[in-house]
Design goal:
Blueprint (H helix, E strand, L loop, with lengths): L9 E3 L3 H14 L1 H8 L4 E5 L6 E4 L5 E3 L1 H11 L6 E6 L2 H13 L5 E4 L2 H9 L7 E6 L9 H7 L5 E8 H11 L6 H5 L13 H17 L4 E2 L3 E5 L5 E9 L2 H10 L7 E2 L2
Helix pairs in contact: 1-3, 5-6
Length: about 270
Amino acid sequence: MADDDGLPVSEVGEWTLEKHDRLRRYVDITRAIRKRFVSRAGATYTDLFSGPGRSRIRETGQMIDGSPIVATTKALEGGAPFTKVFIADIEQEHVSAASTRLAARGVLTQTFAGPAEETVRQIVSQLDPYALHFAFLDPFNLDALPFTVIETLAKLKRMDILIHVSAQDLQRNLRRNMPKEGGPLDRAAPGWREVIDPRESDKKIRVRFLDHWLKLIRSLNMAPSQGIELVSGSKNQPLYWLVLVSRHPKAGELWEKICNITPQRRLDP
C-alpha cells in the first residue's frame, strides 16, 4: 500500500488519532522548556517505532501522518524545533520512507533499522548527556518493547519517555504467553512471575502486571505519570495505556494538564 508520494504506508486503528493527539499536545506544552535547550546542548526526539511516516486508518480509509511527522511538525510550529531527530524501525523500508517524508518537510534525521533493543543502544550512544531528550515508544505489541529498551533510555538524565503499552495484546495473549519462559511477558516486565499468582482472574493479573512494570520503572529513578489512562475502543475493548515517564516532576504536571483523564478511565499506580 502506498500514498500519493509513492512511498509505503502502514495500516492503523482509528484510536491512533487519540494517541497522536496526546503526543502532539505534549510536544506543544513543553515548547518553552525545549527552547531553553535548543541554543545550548540541544533538544532531541527519538522514535524507535517510526513506521513509514504515513498511515491509513483501517476503519475509515483516512490518511494521516505518522508519529515522527506529528511530533516534529508540532515542534516546528511552536518555534522550538528538535535539534536532532532519531528514527528507527524494524523495517528498513519504513525508516527510509519516514526519513524521506521528514526531509521533504525540512527535518533531517539519523536513521536506524532493527529491533528496538539494538537501535536504542546505537541512538543513546550518540546523545549528549547534557541535552534535553524526548522519546516516543509506540510498539505494536509487548514483545517489541523489552524492558531493556527503557533501561537504556533511562541512562540519560534529562529523558522524557511517552510509552504506548498494549492492553489489547495483554488481554488477547495473556494465557498463551504466561507459560513461555523468556517470552513476551518476561521480556516486557522481568520478575513478574515472582509477584503474580496465575490462579487470579485475567483482569487482576493484567492490573498486577502493569503495577509491576511501573515499579520496575521507578527502580530506574524515573517517575511514571499519575492517573494512567486505559484507552478503549468503540466496543469498549481495552486498547492501550499511555504512560509518560520522567525524572523531572514538571513533566508529570504538564502531562496531567493535557491527558483528559476521566475518573472512570483512571488508574492510579
